[in-house]
Design goal:
The protein is of the alpha/beta class. The protein is built from 21 helices and 20 strands.
Length: 519
């Protein structure tokens, strides 16, 4: 059976979901075609939110590529719902059938997704998709296909037959073969074959020392997350589907074989980015084994993420010796009340201790990234101040990654918000929301400025006086704060431009200008 797997994806086209599906289907004797449609989620503004419409030229290429496929799969996250609907509608108009949706959004909203797709696969799709293919080939009854939904007798039906993988070492490596892989060329709005040169140009460029940037390969050594945050799909997946172990890890041997193969296939790769939810949550014995063998067998600089309770001096020291140059960590909030709402298990003291640990090794690491969530509808000014004051304690040696709280369907916070009437327009508040753009409020402006090395911390502490914050924050989003936040953003762009010119990284300027042209 001829199969196409399509994914709207962030610009780096890591797309671990469809790459794992493709690799598994290949191991079962199938030859899937992969289509990557990379792009940010801020392409077009629609009624205060963000959407995107593919050009007809690109859609015509997609129809041509899928013309002889008997099964077409789409895998996507909630922010890409508009795109998935447009793709599916185009395929329907061109008589394509057996369209299956999978990924985070269809998993969280399977019945709603059946308004567009013929089938929906929930949770992990490798074995269910292979079973669905067997069903379409007449080899297996649908009732025996796990994790699937379809319309039967006018109603959404599922056989209530769930499959969960308690170990993942048997899965083949992600499919980076480039065989029958296509990617959208946004400058021409056409689909083109993904060859080596184009692949190298798309691979992420991560900062390194002395203003350099490395061409980096992204991978994951695990599935799942050690945390159960109420705003995240991981909590829902654990509660709804997990029938054993939720956080599953590949063996060190398996990970290193993948990296050896990929660096041999693409010798211009200069670094590795582990995209695990918390690479540091691995046990010390695992990390020690990894560090010893990685340093000898791979030897490239690498990047990863940790959580406050998992970042410990011994772990960090061992990984730095193996080649770690960067780590990021989720703070999310400095308010204990909001931390409880989020089901964040790390205490404020654990967060501070993790920051002190990272700061201790700052001579060996790039500036860490700390993630913070703002715009919580259950929060108050004091909660914002708690977060702001925690950030003001951190030395300037960090970068802040702000996210505006988005209440994704299927999560615990979404259910609470529905019950309390906090979601007025799902498309505007969720599907078309640019989650990385905080509201323009006074306290968000102050939070944004905490990592700016040119803004004195004493000045920010003066501006963060409770009386002043209470007075100015009550006005809500306002034009002056939006203006100041835009000026700060422009100033940061200017600094990056100066840095790019200083170190001769003119490709950064070209990429920035290219993104502006295709918006």
């Amino acid at each position: 059976m001829k199969i196409a797997l399509i994914t709207p994806t962030p610009p780096d086209i890591s797309a671990f979901g469809v790459r794992s599906l493709s690799a598994y289907l290949k191991s079962c004797g199938h030859e899937p075609t992969l289509v990557f449609l990379p792009g940010g989620i801020d392409r077009l503004e629609v009624e205060g939110g963000y959407s995107y419409r593919y050009r007809e030229s690109l859609l015509a290429d997609l129809v041509r590529i899928c013309s002889d496929c008997e099964l077409i799969g789409l895998s996507f996250m909630t922010q890409y719902l508009d795109r998935a609907c447009q793709i599916t509608d185009t395929l329907r108009q061109n008589k394509r059938k057996n369209i299956v949706w999978g990924g985070f959004h269809p998993t969280l909203c399977p019945q709603d997704s059946l308004e567009f797709a013929d089938y929906v696969i929930e949770a992990e799709g490798e074995i269910p998709l292979e079973n669905l293919i067997a069903h379409l080939e007449g080899k297996l009854d649908w009732e025996k296909v796990p994790n699937t939904w379809r319309i039967k007798d006018g109603h959404a039906r599922s056989p209530n037959n769930y499959h969960w993988m308690n170990e993942i070492d048997f899965l083949p490596d992600y499919d980076f073969s480039l065989e029958r892989h296509y990617v959208s060329d946004l400058s021409q709005e056409r689909l083109v074959p993904l060859d080596d040169e184009l692949f190298y140009s798309i691979l992420p460029k991560m900062p390194y020392f002395d203003g350099r940037f490395l061409t980096v390969y992204r991978t994951m050594s695990s599935r799942g997350c050690p945390h159960q945050c109420s705003y995240c799909i991981n909590r829902t997946l654990r509660q709804r589907y997990c029938q054993g172990t939720y956080l599953r890890r590949r063996s060190v041997e398996k990970v290193l074989i993948e990296l050896e193969n990929i660096t041999r296939r693409f010798p211009r790769i200069q670094g590795i980015h582990f995209f695990d939810d918390s690479f540091f949550s691995n046990k010390a014995a695992y990390l020690n084994d990894f560090a010893d063998r990685y340093r000898t067998d791979i030897g490239l600089p690498f990047y990863c993420q940790g959580s406050p309770e998992s970042i410990q001096p011994k772990k960090l020291e061992g990984l730095i010796e193996a080649g770690l140059v960067f780590c990021e960590m989720g703070i999310q909030t400095g308010s204990e009340k909001i931390a409880q709402l989020y089901h964040r298990t790390s205490t404020n003291e654990q967060i501070r201790e993790a920051i002190r640990t990272i700061d201790f090794f700052q001579d060996h690491l790039l500036k860490p990234h700390y993630h913070v969530i703002v715009d919580n509808p259950w929060g108050c000014v004091q909660d914002d101040l708690d977060t702001l004051n925690m950030l003001l304690e951190i030395p300037h040696h960090f970068m802040l990654c702000l996210a505006s709280l988005t209440l994704f369907p299927g999560t615990e916070l979404h259910q609470i918000a529905i019950e309390e009437g906090k979601i007025k327009d799902a498309y505007k508040d969720i599907y078309r929301k640019a989650f990385y753009k905080p509201q323009s409020t006074y306290v968000n402006l102050l939070i944004t400025l905490t990592d700016n090395p040119f803004i004195p911390k004493p000045l920010l502490r003066f501006l963060a006086r409770p009386a002043l914050v209470n007075r100015l924050q009550r006005k809500g989003p306002a034009r002056p704060w939006s203006l100041f936040m835009s000026l700060d953003k422009a100033f940061r762009y200017l600094l990056k431009t100066i840095e790019a010119v200083r170190y001769g990284n003119f490709w950064r300027l070209k990429q920035f200008l290219k993104r502006q042209r295709v918006r």
